[in-house]
C-alpha cells in the first residue's frame, strides 16, 4: 500500500481510520532518467508519498527467510522427459535424395519396324521440400530428345490438390505424372535404408524390359549378295566418326596470280566422302571460309556422255560414274586430282597411319618434304626496318596484327624477381676532364631486364644531377634490329665498359647484394664476373663459403 494509515488501536472500520496528518509528500516517484542526453527508464524504489513499496517489503521478507529454509534432498531421475532440440527439415534432410529407376512405354505410329519404345528414366525425390524431378539418361545416336523430362517441382497426385510424397513411392508400382505412366523397377541402397527405417515394406525389384527395336539392332544381320543396303548399314555402324586426314599442297600456279597453298583433306570412311579445307594464317588476306571443296563423293572415272549433252551443265549422276575415290587412291608423295585441282599429299595423322597399317599393310606412308613451303616467312624478316620509335617488341606488333596487341611477358619471372635491383657505381668515359668527376648509379631490374641510370649531383660542379636514362632495355653495340641482344647481369664485371646509346660507362663498384645474387646463379654467370666482384669486396678465391654466410646475414645492404 502506498498509504500509511494510523489507527492507534481503533478498529479498521469506516470512520475510525484517518490519514497521517504529518505526511507532506504525496507525489509519485520519478521513473525516467537522463544519461548522455538519452532518456532511460528505471524501476521505482518507493511508492507514492515516499512510502515503501509492498513488493519490495515482500521481497525483503523472502530474502530474510532464505537462510532458515533447509534444502531438501533432490535426486535426478531418468523418468524426467528431456526435450530434444528442434531441427528444421531443410537442415535435417539437406542433400538427402531418394533415387528410383523407372521406365515408361511410348507408342510409335506409322512404323513397320517398331510399335512401341521402352525408355528408361531416373526419378529423384528431394526429402527437404518433397519435390521430384525425372531425368532420362542420354543414349548415344538415339535421335530422340533426352535429358531432363520434368524439372524439380512438387508433382500433383490427384485433382484434389494433393501431391506425391515419399510414402506414396515403392518398387514395382506405377506412378502417373502429367498423363505419363512410369513404372518403378528398383531404387538405390540409401532409398532402401530410408524407406525401411520409416516402416515401409519394399517390393521386390523388377528388371527393365528390353526395347524390341534395340534388340533387333543387336542381332547379326543376314548376308545377301544381291542387296547393298546391309553393307551400307554395317559401314555406318563400324565406320561412324572415323576420318582419314591428309596434309598436302594445292598447286594453283597455272591460274592467274596462282600460288601454292596448304590444304587439309578429310576422307570420311562412313560414306566415302571427301572434304578439302584450306589452312589459313593470321593476316593472310584470304577468304575467312576455309572450305575449298564441300563434303561429297568425288568421281574418279566417268562414262562418256551420250546424246551430246554438255557435262559441264548437268550434274554427274550415279549412273555416269564408273568408280569413286577410295582410301587406296590416297598415297603420300603422289599427286591426286580432285575436280580438276591438283594436290600433293605430304603427310597424315596418326589415326590414318594406323588405319593403313591394319587394312593396307603393303602401302608405305612416309612423309614427303614439300618442294615449296607455303608457310609465310619469318614474321621478323617480313617486318619493315626499325624506325627507332618505341621498343622493338612494341613496333613489331604493328606488323603482326591489324590491331596491335601488347607483347607477351614472362609473368613468373616478374613475380620471382619483383623489386630485385642490381646497382652499380659507374663513371662516364669521356675526353672532357669535367666528366671524370661525374658519378652515376646504374640500376639493373631483374624483373624485366631494364636499365636505368641516375647521376649523383656534386656540389658546386655546375652539372645538374638527376635521371640520366629512364627504364629501358639497352641493346649491345654489336646487335642488330633483326637479331637484338640485350645486356644481362653476366656482362657487368668490375672494370667493364657498358655502351648505352653511344655513351660509354665504366663500372667501378657494386652493391653487396649483386655478389649475393650472382653466386646464387653461378651456373648462369661467367667465372670472370664473379672473380671481379669478389676482388672488389676484398674476398679471396678460397673464402667463398665465408662470404656466403656474410651475405645471408646482410641481404639488404
What's the number of helices?
Answer: 12
Radius of gyration: 48 Å
Biggest sheet character: 6 strands, antiparallel
Backbone shape: flat
CATH architecture of the largest domain: Roll
Which structural class best describes the helix and strand composition? alpha+beta
SS strand fraction? 25-35%
Count of spatially separate domains: 4
Distance between the ends: 87 Å
**Could you say what the CATH topology of the largest domain is called?**
PH-domain like
Brief summary of the model shown:
By secondary structure, the protein is an alpha+beta fold. It contains twelve helices and 22 strands.
Structure, described:
It is a single chain. With 557 residues, this protein is of the alpha+beta class. It has helices spanning 54-65, 89-92, 189-197, 212-218, 229-239, 350-359, 379-382, 392-400, 411-416, 512-520, 527-536, 544-553, and strands at 32-35, 38-41, 97-107, 116-126, 131-136, 147-153, 173-177, 180-187, 243-251, 260-268, 273-278, 291-296, 299-302, 321-324, 335-338, 341-348, 421-428, 439-445, 450-456, 466-472, 497-500, 503-510. The chain has a 6-stranded antiparallel beta sheet with strand order 6-5-4-3-8-7, with helices on one face. Strand 21 and strand 22 (503-510) form a beta hairpin. The radius of gyration is 48 Å and the shape is flat.
